[in-house]
UniProtKB/TrEMBL annotation:
<feature type="domain" description="PAS">
    <location>
        <begin position="190"/>
        <end position="261"/>
    </location>
</feature>
<dbReference type="InterPro" id="IPR036971">
    <property type="entry name" value="PDEase_catalytic_dom_sf"/>
</dbReference>
<feature type="compositionally biased region" description="Basic and acidic residues">
    <location>
        <begin position="293"/>
        <end position="303"/>
    </location>
</feature>
<feature type="region of interest" description="Disordered">
    <location>
        <begin position="16"/>
        <end position="40"/>
    </location>
</feature>
<dbReference type="InterPro" id="IPR023088">
    <property type="entry name" value="PDEase"/>
</dbReference>
<feature type="active site" description="Proton donor">
    <location>
        <position position="519"/>
    </location>
</feature>
<feature type="binding site">
    <location>
        <position position="560"/>
    </location>
    <ligand>
        <name>Zn(2+) 2</name>
    </ligand>
</feature>
<dbReference type="InterPro" id="IPR000014">
    <property type="entry name" value="PAS"/>
</dbReference>
<dbReference type="GO" id="GO:0004115">
    <property type="term" value="F:3',5'-cyclic-AMP phosphodiesterase activity"/>
</dbReference>
<comment type="pathway">
    <text>Purine metabolism; 3',5'-cyclic AMP degradation; AMP from 3',5'-cyclic AMP: step 1/1.</text>
</comment>
<feature type="compositionally biased region" description="Basic and acidic residues">
    <location>
        <begin position="16"/>
        <end position="25"/>
    </location>
</feature>
<dbReference type="InterPro" id="IPR003607">
    <property type="entry name" value="HD/PDEase_dom"/>
</dbReference>
<feature type="binding site">
    <location>
        <position position="688"/>
    </location>
    <ligand>
        <name>Zn(2+) 1</name>
    </ligand>
</feature>
<keyword id="KW-0378">Hydrolase</keyword>
<dbReference type="InterPro" id="IPR002073">
    <property type="entry name" value="PDEase_catalytic_dom"/>
</dbReference>
<feature type="binding site">
    <location>
        <position position="560"/>
    </location>
    <ligand>
        <name>AMP</name>
    </ligand>
</feature>
<feature type="domain" description="PDEase">
    <location>
        <begin position="443"/>
        <end position="782"/>
    </location>
</feature>
Amino acid sequence: MGCASSIHISDRVVYHSGKESEDSHSPQQTNTTQHQGNPTTLTEVQFGPMKLFKDPLQVLLVFAKEDSQSNGFCWACEKAGFRFSLARTVESARECFVEKQHDLVIIDHRQTRHLDAEALCRAIRSVISSENTVIVAVVKRPDREEASVMPLINAGFNRRYVENANMMACYNELLQLEHGEVRAQFKLRAGNALFTALEQSQEAIEITSEDQVIQYVNPAYESIMGYQQGELIGKEIIEVPKSEKNKPDLLETINSCIRKGKVRKKTVHSTLQNVSDKIRHYVSINRPLNDNNKSEKPSERVQAESQTDIQSSKHKDRRKGSLDVRSTTSRGSDGSSQRRHSSMARIHSMTIEAPITKVINIINAAQESSPMPVAEALDRVLEILRTTELYSPQLGTKDEDPHTNDLVGGLMTDGLRRLSGNEYIFSTKQPHHIPSHLTTPLSLNDIPPRIAQTMENEDSWDFDIFNLEAATMKRPLTYLGLKIFSRFGVCEFLNCPEATLRSWLQVIEANYHSTNSYHNSSHAADVLHATAYFLCKERVKQSLDPIDEVAALIAATVHDVDHPGRTNSFLCNAGSELAILYNDTAVLESHHAALAFQITTRDDKCNIFKNIERNEYRTLRQAIIDMVLATEMTKHFEHVNKFVNSINKPLAALEENGGNNDEESVKSVLTSPENRILVKRMLIKCADISNPCRPQELCIEWAGRISEEYFAQTDEEKRQGLPVVMPVFDRNTCSIPKSQISFIDYFITDMFDAWDAFADLPNLMQHLDNNFKYWKGLDERKLHSLRPPPE
């Protein structure tokens, strides 16, 4: 008994075909990872009126050591014709799951010394696609009193299996799982398609409980009501917010539109009942009436039954023409239709002064005289305008490149799920003061010749920051800061002595972590250099005032101070003190800005703001904070899209039209307060992630450093049992060329196209093109490293 004699175990994962041997009950080895089950037909599954077809079950078995229990499940999978994989370690199991997306995972929980089953379960649950995966823990047979299953449930397990190596017991367990939990999860997954249809429907749909508590509304319903889902879900219909400001003339306008038939709604109400005739849900659908169906009754009520009752109700009286009394007289009856129209009026009257409301009113007026296709398109416009993120695209998750997915998940979200018992302690120490060996005052004229020579071409884009890093013994920020701040007259603007500026630069640099491979003072110096370079471009100089330039240089200097070398997502998942302090929102960026001002203002010796007027200080402080917060990647597309739509497009239109007032119009676009803010945000964003636009050798070095920092984070996430935010950044499997290609494609290209159109940066775009081709070439050769192997 057992499959030990015929299984070939690799170091990581064993794949099986699921084809049962004629001579043995042991699973057979396959030579590739493309393992298939028996060539059986697809299983037909009925889900309400939907007919689904399910592939053979995919099973992941995770057993650290081979024994009779693992052999029993191997044999059971073979007999059932299920495709399955066998993993020995937590890492290989997670990698296998990410690749294969199994329906069922069975994890050995008997020997925690060899395999941390609960940590593995949490790691699998951190993968978004695991939502509908059934995970089973194989536990020891209890010697004494039965233990609680709550720790397993909290870890993410669906159920447990008390060890029983009997092959038929394993086989029966798999069959029960397939026809029970796994099939139920398969139906739930199919339910996502229904929700997608509801979300895209132009008919307003509302689902309530039997007590008229709102359980679901779709975007079209939000558009009609003027409220967001969060304001409606969980409330009784009669609790929907009211206002005393309804105006009779506005209501009359709406009613006149209804009488004309232009926005007339057909309301269909359904009740979902069970066998005992108890109403479980009400479904309300508001449907626009066109010319072809105006003759229909404005409101009709239909009786709907759940799928489980269809067979039993075939011989029942269908009650044609009758109405459900409870539905008609309840809180969701015809009165709710009137409330919908009045609530629209309330929304308009409540926010009549808001600019967005004026826009919506103009569109509503245009709809009255528009043909149906145009009116429907304007409905979609209104739906978009009522969202909160007008400039941020909706990010796909499932079918995109995994490198892009991980970059988006790791850089543009604030964590996945909070795990108890894994708190990450960070920033409990006090900020660094200036080390004693750095306190010797320096003058710009006293800089050592070797360092001065290294900085001779600091105004060139091709300036080599790594030469300066080596010459200054990893203290490039102080020296480069002295030169750049002197070139821009920062001390004169701030009315502060050069000694104060020197002290400030030294203490800021001391609070960067030299142990970070990427987010250290060399990165800050690199961003400062790029910022200074951009500030010298003609268009930028036309747009910004001296106070903006000073704010930009200071923001670049402090933008990553005290960075721990971990992403926001990591800190949120780990429950760090900073994540708690800043409510999981822009955690690091908020910390950088706050700490920079704490360091600066606590000691007069380095307080560069000491001698400026209060109002000027407030303006400067606001600009610095805004620019540091702009480096957070969650609002990346919002900042870029606002810049393009508010600045680039108007400037392009002016250039096309020409005219006598062209120069004055360009100036008004460039110097408006709102647009100056957008320029400063775009400037520091481009400076912060300009590595792909640097000369090739510099680009390669930066790519290696950021990859190493992400590798270190992945290592720590695995050690602590935290969700791995960027699984592709595993030092054993990562393709650095692929990660760079994804980063350039997703974040860099569009942003620098827009910045180049504004600031005219042909040399940067040429470097970007060369670097992209370099990474593409390595990827086409299937290389994972920074450089090709020596010839």
